[in-house]
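FIELD: query
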Amino acid sequence: MAQAWKCAGLRWVAGDPVLMWVGGRRSALSRGKRVAFGIAAGGVRTCVGARGHACPLGSVVPGRSAGARCGECARLDRAHSVAADTIADDPRPYRVYLAWFGPGLVKVGITGAERGTARLLEQGAVCFSWLGTGPLMAARRTEELLRAALRVPDRIPYARKRAVRAALPATEEERAAEIAELHGRAVALGGWPESLTPEPFRSVDHVRAFGLAEGDRGPGAVGEVVELVAGGAVGGELVAAAGPDLHLATERGVVVLDTRLMTGWELVAVEGDRCDVPVREFDDPAGVQDGLF
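FIELD: result
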């Protein structure tokens, strides 16, 4: 029987995507590498637990869930989450950022200063700029200031991020234009917390890191994986990676696989470029992403 591994998700390490496995194993990913795995017939997807602890009930979770947690573990995980605003006394410094995902899609967010740009890579930000650095609650107040005064959201669904990449401008200057304008409006606002140190505008572009540069683009994707299923398999050459998404050249064409759908499954190695899982076809592949998505 083939050895099975349980996926712990995708992380961006030193600017590159890495698949993590329960037990500590890592699989570095690079464009051109083959990614291929299958799920044994009769397999089930189980809750990944919370805060480093296994789910006490071993609950089965839906195949389409991006979080792969049962209700109880999801609540426990969120109860200790900076994103949920439940930790007010964290002494570490935080940075506020503006992230751009494509024309018309800009968000404000915060991340721990020690994480560097990892959070932006994980979210699939095409480009971003820092706004300021300070204590957690000062960063939170600044984030809320931008939401209230400039109507900048703090969340953007991944489906929308993928869709707008069809219209990515060709140059870094064009891609940075929206966050440059918004950065100027943000620093001109009154009411910034005194403990937050503003930072000058400087755009960081991830197009090449994701494989979205003009010379890197492969064939357009035909669709996206909806869920993994028992007895199914996915395999193909890695065309690009952006945020949690892998773009694999399979027997059905290039498909987008959200690696969050892999967590909770016992996966085994397979051969070939199979794609024996449900795939949602794009209505207009050329309109979803020019040359890639």
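FIELD: remark
The chain has seven helices and 15 strands.
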